[in-house]
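Example record

One chain of 203 residues, shown exactly as stored in the release files.
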Amino acid sequence: MPLAHPERQQRATRPGLRHNRHPATTKESILIGRRLSIVLSILVLSGCATVAPSIPESYSGPQARLDDSVVIHSDSKSDMFVAEQLDGKDVDNAIRRSQQASQGRGFALTTVQFGRPIVASKPIKVGVRGRTVFAAPIQALTSTVYQVKGTVEFIPEPNAIYVVRGEFGETYSAVWVEEATSKTVVGQKVEVKGSAKLGFLEK
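Predicted structure tokens for this chain:
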């Protein structure tokens, strides 16, 4: 009886070798792919989140202006002080616009200056936030991120310009709204006496 070919004989004694050549690598690739899909989905959903107009479409009364402010530290890091809500409704702001403009640019942060018209001559509640912003999420995870947020209530004067300002420090941080020309603070400052650094899971 003829002998089996050596190569065929070797394959016969090691069944399934071809199909399990790199099982660990295959599983790792699947897990990485799933994680990337989740991250991309979150980014897409956050970028598509709807925001309300800063002034109702039907409004025709007196207006003022409220601008965000930015302190640029480097090409990849800035401190941003913004209005993110008006009377409880989410509105567009410099943080959101800068993150959108920086997508796909690696460690380069495209800082976008932003402002919006607001209703004047009536009380308004402004949800303000100050935050350290980086170009890439991995930078935030490995760096110090400050954040202060709260609500400032005031009555805007017609045709006036207001700016959201703030400061960060080791033992004191704050965010507030001031009149652009006189630098007078309107409403109350939102203050943190102590550390305003975010924990790892808060970033």
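Notes: DSSP finds four helices and ten strands in the chain.
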